[in-house]
Amino acid sequence: MDFSALTGAVDATAVVAAIMAIGAIMILPVVARWGAKKVIGMIGR
Predict the structure, then answer these.
(1) Computed from CA positions of residues 35, 41, 42, 44, in that sequence, does the dihedral angle turn out positive or negative?
(2) 41 alpha carbon, distance to own chain's centre
(3) How far apart (Å, rounded) are the C-alpha atoms in residues 15 and 8?
(4) Which pLDDT tens digit goes with each residue over 1-45?
(5) DSSP conformation letters of 1-45
(6) CA 9 – CA 39 distance, rounded (Å)
(7) Which of 1, 3, 5, 44 is the most exposed, having the fewest neighbouring CB atoms within 10 Å of its CB?
(8) Rounded to an integer, what distance in angstroms lies between the CA atom of residue 38 and that of residue 32?
(9) What's the rounded Cα separation, in Å, for the pair 26 and 13?
């Protein structure tokens, strides 16, 4: 079997974009929790 067409379709930019997307999805809950604490802290003052 010839996988050259398949490996050619998956280029470096697609791999980097996928890694960045996974990183963004993983960091979202952390950022949301931090933002919620900041807003609650501002309201509490």
Answers:
(1) positive
(2) 27
(3) 12
(4) 567 766 777 777 888 899 999 999 999 999 999 999 999 999 986
(5) ---HHHHHHS-HHHHHHHHHHHHHHHHHHHHHHHHHHHHHHHHH-
(6) 45
(7) 1
(8) 10
(9) 20
Pull the structure tokens for residue 38: 């900041």
Q: What is the pTM of this model?
A: 0.51
